[in-house]
From TrEMBL:
GO terms for molecular function: metalloexopeptidase activity. This is M20/M25/M40 family metallo-hydrolase. The keyword Hydrolase applies. The lineage of its organism: Bacteria, Pseudomonadati, Bacteroidota, Cytophagia, Cytophagales. Keywords: Hydrolase, Metalloprotease, Protease, Secreted, Signal.
Length: 457
């Protein structure tokens, strides 16, 4: 060790010590359910690679590519996804059903030159509790593109964008098909993302129209590369989850409440993102979930957006460092650089960990009780304590109890957790200085999404 690095480490140590004496942003993690641990351990980097290899073998999965060729193009690719889902469904005892949800997109004068039939491939694992109508969606997009977004002929392997996301969805469906969840789990390979989020918009509108009780939507797009070409950074220990701040469908009344509570970091989507961090980091070693406080990256959109627009909690997972030489690029050599979204630039151990975060989140939500209702913080008196009340959920399984979560108003993560059996409690910390939320929890420790209390006298 050089003198310089020694001094640097010493300073870092001192800073760490000082930080320890004041505020730390240590997160309280979710509990672990043995069954979910087991599912997480079954995720295989090798399987994920085989899934991505198969998707790349269709040469292009461009939305406007052939639907009649048996080996090439989007038609063959989506038939293959469907047949794989059907294989997994055999282990579900009839609970998993598979559909090709077809729809026609009219020529839009932009990225869809003529009326085009598209299809989302959907596997639905029905919940085991007939009284539980909650739905959780996990998705990725099957379509791919080359440099020119209208080029449906050139090779567009789309290994990372977004065979990686679809591989997550498929590996989860395989493992979860035989397991029990009281809520319903929906696994989707979207089409039409690159042409304008057509598949996700179609499903989000259907969810709204049919009145699904959708509690969470997890979008996975560009999740399997851990190397940034420009900066040379290698990092497979962090992954980003983007969430919108103010909800796309915020009403005047919601704005008023947000301003009173100071809850700009507690939109439904951000609550979900924080839940993913708390759950993912409990179940997955060597991975930090980085909360991205924006709806998406610059110049980019994703399949979570139409769900946000319909008022649902929806987030996007993306790798920490993107490699733009290997996204949206024709496969070619140029000045000694290989361009194109090729499998050789992917990191399947990283993809395995990202799958695990998704699986742990979906499984926990699917097994948890419904969230508590009418969560209230009593503001009748000026006190330095916090009185909270709520009601047991009217539907679903009976909770074993509740977690009251607490964090400083400037903290991005939940920092303290109190277990409560009753439906009210007094916390010995001031409501003025902390944010609170309440989760319903089952005996195995699976907790619902946190609910932010509304003030009442
Ligand atoms: Zn994408």
């Amino acid at each position: 060790m050089t003198n310089y690095t020694f001094r640097k480490r010493l300073i870092a140590l001192i800073l760490l010590f000082l930080a320890g004496t004041t505020t730390t942003f240590a997160q309280v993690n979710a509990n672990q359910d043995e069954e979910i641990q087991k599912m997480v351990s079954e995720i295989s980097a090798q399987n994920l690679r085989a899934l991505v290899e198969k998707m790349v073998s269709f040469e292009t999965r461009h939305t406007l590519s052939t639907t009649t060729d048996k080996k090439r193009g989007i038609g063959a690719a989506r038939e293959w996804v469907k047949s794989e889902f059907e294989k997994y469904a055999k282990a579900s005892g009839g609970r998993m059903t598979v559909e090709m949800d077809r729809f026609v997109v009219k020529a839009d004068g932009r990225r869809v030159p003529q009326d085009t039939e598209m299809a989302n491939v959907i596997a639905t694992l029905k919940g085991t509790d007939a009284n539980d109508n909650r739905v959780i969606i996990v998705g990725g997009h099957l379509d791919s593109r080359a440099t020119d977004v209208m080029d449906a002929k050139s090779k567009a392997p789309g290994a990372n964008d977004d065979a990686s996301g679809v591989a997550i969805v498929m590996e989860m469906a395989r493992i979860m098909a035989s397991r029990q969840f009281s809520g319903t789990l929906v696994f989707v390979a979207f089409q039409g993302e690159e042409q304008g989020l057509y598949g996700s918009r179609h499903l989000a509108e259907r969810v709204k129209k049919e009145g699904w009780n959708l509690v969470a939507m997890q979008n996975n797009d560009i999740v399997g590369n851990s190397f940034s070409g420009e900066t040379g950074l290698h990092d497979n220990t962090r992954v980003r989850v983007f969430s919108e701040g103010t909800p796309a469908n915020e009403t005047e009344e919601m704005t008023k409440l947000r301003r009173t509570l100071g809850s700009e970091n507690d939109s439904p989507s951000r609550i979900l993102a924080r839940y993913m961090k708390m759950t993912g980091e409990a179940y997955v070693d060597q991975l930090e979930v980085v909360l991205g406080y924006r709806a998406d990256r610059f110049l980019r959109g994703g399949d979570h957006t139409p769900f946000n627009q319909q008022g649902f909690a929806a987030v996007r997972m993306s790798e920490m460092n993107e490699d733009f030489d290997h996204q949206h690029q024709n496969v070619r050599m140029e000045n000694g650089t290989q361009y194109g979204d090729l499998i050789e630039f992917m990191d399947f151990e990283y993809l395995r960990k990202n799958t695990a975060v998704n699986l742990a989140t979906m499984a926990s939500l699917g097994r948890a009780p419904y969230a508590p209702e009418a969560v209230t913080v009593i503001t009748a008196n000026l006190t330095n304590k916090t009185d909270l009340t709520w009601q047991a959920p009217a539907k679903g399984k009976k909770p074993a109890g509740y977690y009251v979560l607490m964090r400083e108003t400037s903290s991005p993560v939940w920092e303290k957790k109190f277990f409560v059996k009753e439906t009210k409690t007094t916390i010995n910390y001031s409501k003025d200085n902390y944010f609170f939320a309440v989760q319903a929890v089952d005996a195995a420790g699976n907790a619902s999404l946190p609910v932010i209390p509304v003030p009442a006298r």
